[in-house]
Backbone:
């Protein structure tokens, strides 16, 4: 097989793998949505929040939708009850940039952030990737801990638990969990768990994606294709004879 043909086969295999693994999450970077008073849930400010995502625990959840550019100097919040609901100066913008969400980990006010994913194949594995970290709202003080519980359908996995000092920030960390779908539609859910109650420990979340894990046969085709490229290239390399 000529080098041009081998390159074409390898390129086709790579393109096929890429096209077979689209991101199933809508607005995984949280860039589209509406921010006014930052808090969003069905009971308070139901029209706010990132497009495609929902908080489903009524008036209990205290989740915030914010922008990296203003979250450490939030002066546009219109409700006095939300004064001080911004992150400390130690916060840094996420690798994904732009807007992101803050999920309260206080056991009394935590609530799930979820999105229903469609087009899944039962029995197929899916990789959930995201950036996350932990911090504390400036309206409180004291050391806190927080971790994220991430679920696809009924299957759940937890991140490590992060500990932060008063007004500290830990992150952003790149996380990947793999799940096996059990239905064609399942809810992807993020739930913040923190301590102590009354001192809002929070988790920050951005850059969410869900993609199908390539089947072993596809990986084998790709590896074989690129391997052939190397073999043919070596065979075509000119031989240099020492004088």
Residues:
């Amino acid at each position: 097989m000529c080098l041009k043909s081998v390159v074409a086969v390898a390129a086709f295999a790579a393109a096929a793998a890429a096209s077979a693994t689209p991101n199933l999450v809508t607005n995984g970077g949280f860039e589209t949505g509406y921010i006014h008073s930052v808090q969003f849930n069905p009971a308070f400010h139901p029209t706010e929040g990132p497009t495609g995502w929902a908080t489903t625990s009524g008036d209990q959840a205290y989740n915030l939708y914010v922008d990296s550019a203003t979250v450490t100097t939030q002066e546009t919040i219109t409700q006095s009850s939300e004064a001080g609901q911004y992150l400390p100066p130690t916060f840094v913008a996420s690798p994904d940039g732009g807007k992101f969400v803050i999920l309260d980990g206080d056991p009394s006010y935590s609530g799930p952030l979820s999105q229903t994913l469609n087009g899944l194949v039962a029995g197929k594995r899916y990789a959930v990737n995201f950036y996350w970290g932990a911090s504390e709202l400036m309206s409180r003080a004291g050391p806190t801990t927080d971790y994220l519980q991430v679920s696809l359908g009924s299957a759940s996995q937890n991140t490590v638990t992060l500990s932060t000092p008063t007004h500290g920030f830990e992150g952003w960390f790149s996380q990947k969990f793999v799940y096996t779908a059990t239905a064609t539609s399942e809810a992807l859910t993020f739930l913040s768990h923190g301590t102590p109650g009354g001192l809002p420990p929070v988790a920050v979340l951005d850059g969410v994606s869900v993609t199908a894990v390539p089947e072993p046969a596809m990986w084998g085709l790709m590896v074989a294709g690129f391997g052939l490229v190397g073999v043919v290239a070596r065979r075509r390399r000119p031989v240099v004879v020492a004088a």
